[in-house]
Amino acid sequence: MLLLVAAVAAVAICIWRTLTHPDVEAALFQSAQFSSAVLALFLFFVGMAAWLLMTGLFLQNAWGYSALSSGLAIAPGPMTAAVFAVNSARVSARFGRRVPAVLGPLLVAAAGGFWLLFTPGDSDYLLRSCPA
Predict the structure, then answer these.
(1) What is the spatial distance between Cα 33 and Cα 120, in angstroms, rounded to a whole number?
(2) Chain mean pLDDT for the chain
(3) Could you tell me which residues come within 8 angstroms of residue 130 by beta carbon, excluding any fewer than 6 positions away?
(4) What percentage of the chain has pLDDT greater than the value 70?
(5) Could you tell me if residue 22 is inside a domain?
(6) Using CA atoms, how far apart are residues 15 and 11, in angstroms rounded to an integer?
(7) What is each CA distance from 75 to 33, 48, 55, 66, 111, in whole angstroms?
């Protein structure tokens, strides 16, 4: 009973804090640049989560990998994203923000579509599936 009361109190405090002191001011969403950047990041992270889920399921169900093996097989993808994120300031300084913001997701989508269309059922990881 005490745990239930503590949980209800914690939820009430969190709701009160959010209503009186929001983490993100609503006025920021009046800026088209901010709103479009938030939308682009949201879509990127939804796509990344879908890629992680679908690739893990594919490696386990179609190719018979264990959960650990499929996790290790997916690891080059996020590591490659981290390497490119470190250099993103130089790229945007050279080409501006718009070119990488448009070209990057289009290339990722094209690579994903190519992988979906042309990956056969045989389990040749390095030639068929390695995300790096």
Answers:
(1) 41
(2) 80
(3) 73, 76
(4) 84
(5) no
(6) 6
(7) 32, 13, 11, 14, 17
Q: Is 36 a member of any domain?
A: yes
Q: In total, how many domains does the chain have?
A: 1
Per-residue pLDDT tens digits for 44-85 = 888 888 888 888 898 898 888 899 988 888 888 888 888 888
pLDDT of res. 67: 92
Q: Which of 76, 49, 46, 72 is nearest to 59 (CA)?
A: 72
Q: Which of helix, strand or coil describes residue 67?
A: helix
Q: Is residue 67 part of a domain?
A: yes
Would you say the C-alpha torsion 45, 47, 48, 50 has a positive or negative sign?
positive
Task: Select from 79, 107, 116 the least CA-distant residue to 128.
Answer: 116
Q: Domain containing 89: what range? A: 32-128
Residue 23 lies in a domain: no
What was the pLDDT predicted at 129?
Answer: 61
Q: Computed over its alpha carbons, how large is the radius of gyration of the chain?
A: 21
Residue identified by tokens 């994203």 is 81
Q: Which of 127, 128, 126 is nearest to 115 (CA)?
A: 128
